[in-house]
Amino acid sequence: MRMMNCEKCGKVFSSLSSRLCEECREEEEKMLKRAKEELYRNPGLGMMDLVQRLDIPLETLEKFVREGRLVLRSKERLALACEMCGREITGGKRCAACEAKVRRMARELYREAKTREGMYSLQTIKARREGSHE
Ligand SMILES: [Zn+2]
Ligand SMILES: [Zn+2]
User: Fold this and answer.
1) Which ligand has its closest atom nearest to the C-alpha of 102?
2) Last residue of a domain, one of 33, 54, 78
3) What is the whole-number distance in angstroms between the Cα of residue 130 and the centre of ligand 1?
4) Regarding predicted confidence, which is higher, 15 or 99?
């Protein structure tokens, strides 16, 4: 254990290995968590997207990536494909058109199940959905 100045805020603190004081480290953890959550929702995001969306300093993000704590896919794979029609999308799993279609289908199934409650088992609804190719 030795005393040193926090690399970020300059506060003197006792450290084993970290170059940041407790508060600054906590703050970084929070930023890392937010970045991870954002990437989870939009796996195609690049470094600059994260800077803009989350207001996290670029150098902090670079550090996370360098340390292997944050993995960006955007360099290797800029374009994602819609899982239903294969069209290029920037994030998520489906393009807007397919997303709308899926929502509509779900809504119809729900309505059907509601109005004919008891007539269809969940199994029947599933079989109908798999059988229809709209
Ligand atoms: Zn600090
Ligand atoms: Zn699509």
Assistant:
1) 2
2) 78
3) 56
4) 99
